[in-house]
Amino acid sequence: MDIGIDAIGLxxxxxxVDLVDxxxxxxxxxxxxxxxxGQDQMTVTPATQxxxxxxxxxxxxxxxDSLDERLGMVIVGSESGxxxxxxxxxxxxxxxxxxxxxxxxxIKEACYGGTAGLLAARDFVAxxxxxxxxxxxxxIARYGLASGGEVTQGAGAxxxxxxxxxxxLVLHDDALAYTEDIPDFFRPTGxxxxxxxxxxxxxxxxxxxxxxxxxxxxxHHDQYGDYAALLFHLPFTKMxxxxxxxxxxxxxxxDHQRLTxxxxxxxxxxxxxxxxxxxxxxxxxxxxxxEDKTIRSGDRIxxxxxxxxxxxxxxxxxxxxxxxxxxxQAGIQQMLSARVRLNVLEYEQVFTAQLPLGDADAxxxxxxxxxxxxxxxxxxxxxxxRDQQQEKGA
Length: 394
Fold this sequence. Notes:
Belongs to the thiolase-like superfamily. HMG-CoA synthase family. By secondary structure, the protein is of the alpha+beta class.
């Protein structure tokens, strides 16, 4: 029985800052960001969006036939949760008016949480082939103003529907994971920004790439020529180039050229949106489908997921005949084109104007965008949310 991704929805907030502007404001050469890091734009997240609303807005972009009575599981993978106890997935079920007879929970393991959710959903559908699962990778990457990681910020969510006989990507039974306890990235409870050793984290990422790919080839006898594209977790797009370069000595020229060209296509949305942590790998998949019109049904795609701390996993899937129609490509381009460019001062003001920490009651101004869901504020210790569609009586 084939199991995999049936449809994908994408959402990112409506504000961004151009990284050439940011480079000038920080006294850096623009090429340091646009070439050295590989980013052009960075999503700026207003106080009206959090991981719950990002997740619900992404799921709202799915095809109309995606979330029906077959839904049996809802998983949110995130490292940006807004509650230490209650799962974001529960709030998503309410906001989307989903079937309440579902299992709903969150998964946390840095940027690997979305992949853990996807593979758990695959196992769920294998045991319950008449059911579907909704997996949403939703995150906000924040490192602080003028910090070393500032240029690798971003926000967004990718919603994945997992089913039997999927219309987008059949997942193969070849997932291989490696786990090692390393101190490359932390965000202790109570801290709003992480503590990261960037050079060590990059080194660890590339070490995991080498180990996982070598063992996968040993166990599954796959070759680089078997893949139409290799996709990577992209905290910044230059990381994908580094990963492919680490594997390049074992490739022939034709494979290297093909995989390099496809990686460039898979990086385009990341260059514009920035780092979305758990969703970054799946943003690459969306980008590949939207930007590269040479890929075809039957092409095998390899996917490498990484979460600091750390877990690395490689798995693969095969594109299905209707894959291009299971993502709202026109809607994605419209969403990105409608975003508002902020100057650096405006970006800094938005960055600092967040819902206050603690549990005091607060109200957030109504968001002026086309997003259906937004944060309304906090009352009686809990966040509450707005549904623009419902408020307009649609």
